[in-house]
Amino acid sequence: MAYQNVAGQCEGTYTFLEWCKKKRIDIVFVGEAWVDMKGTGTQSHPSCTLGSKVEKGKRTMVYWGKKLDGVAKVIKEDKRLALVEVWGHKLGGIYADGKFSGGAWKAWLESLHEADCLVGDWNAHNQTWDPLNEDDTRGKDMEEWMVEKGFEIGGEYDGPTWERIVNGRRQQSQIDLFISRGPKNWPKVKSDRFL
Hints:
Blueprint: E1 2-5, H1 10-23, E2 27-31, E3 48-50, E4 60-65, E5 73-77, E6 81-86, E7 89-95, H2 102-110, E8 117-121, H3 137-149, E9 152-153, E10 162-166, E11 169-173, E12 176-180
Parallel strand pairs: 1-2, 7-8
Antiparallel strand pairs: 2-4, 3-4, 5-6, 6-7, 8-12, 9-12, 10-11
Helix pairs in contact: 2-3
């Protein structure tokens, strides 16, 4: 299972899917997925099946290797989420843009309760997973939700997953996370760069 935010770039999706093929990754989530102006098309790859519905404003897509056709199925999706079931496991990919908070954020988190694991760009800061930044409201709400629902962060802190330069200053954070109901069930969780 892998996740990459492609920032709306058509080429980024294809390149990431090619990388996943080489690494033999069967379930792939793409955040900030490119969708054409009509909302009817997105990027794909000959080795993958696109499981998500394509529509304008859709932010997360799920793909799987062709060998999972008939085994993997999308069981829930919205603009920010794609939840797929494979062999009884419910795996989700998310892109939680920074434009919603408060009650809407909490309600959306509650809607994720059925997943066994979730990977993606949460855009939430909490010292538990993002030691370079102060907690924000979304991060506090997310940590509370994770504890309540039994989710834990998989893998070790491996440095920032996002950075940019603004006015000559580097900003960094770890907003891309893999969470599951017990990391012991996912012993090979790691962050990797494909470029």
